Amino acid sequence: MYIKQIKLSFSGAEFIQLHDTGPKFLNYGTNSICNITTELWKSDNNDYQEIRNMILPFEIPLPNDIPSSLSVNKDRGKIEYSLRAIISRKPNIKTFQGSTKVIQCAYIVDRYSLPPSIPNPITWKNDKPKKGIGYEISLNDRVFGPRYPIIVRVKLTFFDARLSLEDIVISLKEYTAVTIKSEIKKKRKNVGKKIIKGKQIPISKETQYNECIMDINFTIPDDCLSIFNWSEESFHIEVTHKIKIKVNFGIFSRHNINLEVPVKIKNMMSEEEESCLVAELLHQEEISRYLDSETLQPRYDSSPPSYEPNLPTNQTSTLPSYSLNNNTDSQTSQT
């Protein structure tokens, strides 16, 4: 092939299903999220050169605020990305070959986050004896994900000894909303639920009133019963989550406790992935310092640092890939 230029284009868009136009055709509204174009290669004399085999490594820094790839409400709303190679080639009239060849592939973007450095817990409390039951229920944070489980501590004080604890239920709910013109299509689903029966919870009778304390862990994704999305928001698509806590003393008991709080579910890095990222950032800083020092005063007696990514021995790529449903937030496209 005779070519003189190769460009790379990375683009992303939000697609909103407007209405059905037939059994196999859908009409989508589109909002651009990003469009990055860079020149990968160009011939020296700006003329066509015959290329038989060529390897061109590349890296495209992506904006920190782009949302993850997702699809909600049966594709009623979705966010998709694509990577295109745009090749300027020599046209051939005989074979009807145009001057541009485009190679395109779908690209999945997953944002990743570090666990929160400063927890933001929440506590609900009621210690009035007249209510019959006193409680202090706390949630360890409001941002969760892999490596950072949901932990609910429940402390109950039985001012009325006749009350019997039936169960404690912790559930994670997902809410999706797709705005189509002036209409909002909403959907909710139960991501996961954990039930602790009252008989499993030991009751202490050493104080004036009977008491029990229970820590309940909900691990993501191990305790999730269905496929879920990370908390996300774009032009017309919103994915939110809530944790609901129920302490039941009977179906119609007036002592039942019902609590809920909005939370964020993020794609958090594992310890290995975090170590990999830190090592790579330190390595890039080393390269940057070397280049700066060489610009100011060349040193011919020292060799430059390796430009290979600084990775653990059991890894062959930068960050391990994520699945679509499994946000420092940053992304890098590499090949």
From TrEMBL:
GO terms for cellular component: cytosol; plasma membrane. Gene3D superfamilies: 2.60.40.640. Pfam families: Arrestin_C (PF02752), Arrestin_N (PF00339). Residues 293-335 are annotated as: Disordered. One of its GO terms (molecular function) is protein-macromolecule adaptor activity. Residues 133-265 form the Arrestin C-terminal-like domain. InterPro entries: Arrestin-like_C (IPR014752), Arrestin-like_N (IPR011021), Arrestin_C-like (IPR011022), Arrestin_domain-protein (IPR050357). Residues 31-103 form the Arrestin-like N-terminal domain. It comes from the Eukaryota. GO terms for biological process: ubiquitin-dependent endocytosis. Residues 311-335 have a biased composition (Polar residues). PANTHER family: ARRESTIN DOMAIN CONTAINING PROTEIN, FI21816P1. This is Arrestin C-terminal-like domain-containing protein. It comes from Rhizophagus irregularis.
